[in-house]
Design the sequence.
């Protein structure tokens, strides 16, 4: 599909609340900055919901205190209405699929699902982002993973809610877009689609934070890598129906100054997950991933839904947590969004 500037102009923009300020920054200030920059919606991050609920109820609200979280959600809904922001999606719902039958993990996953659905009702959103599980013990069968997601889709479907499945590039069994697309096809539910992400795609198939070059190093060198990546994006553009893409998240990545240890850290966190947590800036702001190429491939499907800024920007060394001017950062994010669309149309 042609990438004309006129066809791109109508694409709605949103911003993830976890991608501005700190977890302790008042949500009211985050929403004001996002709306002031011209974004039309938000992805509500669960950590921000927890922080908001704890502040407004004067105590430490736990992740499964769903009665209190639903009450806080109603307050957030009103704040978003005041700022004319649509709550596009609740995120991130993680480590749901792949637990063994009868395990505590499986019981917890379904208990969380029921609670998050209550939150979605209270907050007024119809979409739940589910990241591909990174639980080391997750069962590897894609059919088994799909069966779990079918159950979640049916729970959501009874409320007219949708499931946006995202490949996390450090996931145990579904780190690439091809993996989650195969699973979504196996799930075969009308309310299940994809959450695609420029970082997760390029960061998994093209870049590698554990090498000196910052790239995946394989036989054939850079030329072979680029050819394989281009082929992957071409297949994406040809094979995924536009209606099965629910949202596209946008971010870049800094090349680590020192290659990351390829082994999981003491908490079990894999290197790409560590990279993702604090080295993801806005496009055109110091990163090195082929963000334009990924976004162009997604839009080539005909998708014209939400483009969401989801960054985790700790500066080039990952340690800068200074958020003195959120309004200026949000405006810079909107400028980067416009530049991205301009680059695609060119």
Sequence:
């Amino acid at each position: 599909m042609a990438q004309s500037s006129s066809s791109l102009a109508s694409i709605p923009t949103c911003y993830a609340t976890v991608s501005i300020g700190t977890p302790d920054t008042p949500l009211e200030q985050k929403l004001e900055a996002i709306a002031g920059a011209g974004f039309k919606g938000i992805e509500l991050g669960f950590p921000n919901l927890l922080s908001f609920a704890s502040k407004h109820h004067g105590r430490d609200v736990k992740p499964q205190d769903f009665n209190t979280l639903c009450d806080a959600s109603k307050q957030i809904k009103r704040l978003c209405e005041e700022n004319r922001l649509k709550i596009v999606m609740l995120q991130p719902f993680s480590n749901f699929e792949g637990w063994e039958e009868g395990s505590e993990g499986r019981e917890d996953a379904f208990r969380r699902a029921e609670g998050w659905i209550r939150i979605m009702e209270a907050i007024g959103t119809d979409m739940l982002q589910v990241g591909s599980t990174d639980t080391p013990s997750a069962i590897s069968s894609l059919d088994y993973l799909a069966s779990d997601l079918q159950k979640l889709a049916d729970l959501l479907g009874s409320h007219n809610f949708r499931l946006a499945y995202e490949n996390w590039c450090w996931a145990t069994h579904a780190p690439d877009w091809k993996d989650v697309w195969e699973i979504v096809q196996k799930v075969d539910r009308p309310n299940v689609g994809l959450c695609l992400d420029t970082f997760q795609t390029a960061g998994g198939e093209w870049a590698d934070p554990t090498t000196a070059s910052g790239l995946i190093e394989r036989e054939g060198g850079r030329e072979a890598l680029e050819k394989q990546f281009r082929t992957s994006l071409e297949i994406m553009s040809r094979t995924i129906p536009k209606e099965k893409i629910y949202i596209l998240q946008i971010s870049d990545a800094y090349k680590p100054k020192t290659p990351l240890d390829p082994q999981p850290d003491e908490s079990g966190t894999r290197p790409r997950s560590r990279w993702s947590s604090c080295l993801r800036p806005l496009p055109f702001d110091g990163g090195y991933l082929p963000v334009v190429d990924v976004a162009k491939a997604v839009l080539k499907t005909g998708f014209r839904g939400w483009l969401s800024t989801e960054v985790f920007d700790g500066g080039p060394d990952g340690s800068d947590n200074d958020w003195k001017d959120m309004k200026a950062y949000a405006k810079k994010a909107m400028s980067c969004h416009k530049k991205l669309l301009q680059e695609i149309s060119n």
The longest helix spans residues 104-123. Residues 36 and 327 are 7 Å apart (CA to CA). The beta strands are 13-16, 41-45, 86-93, 127-131, 162-166, 192-197, 245-250, 279-280, 306-309, 312-313.
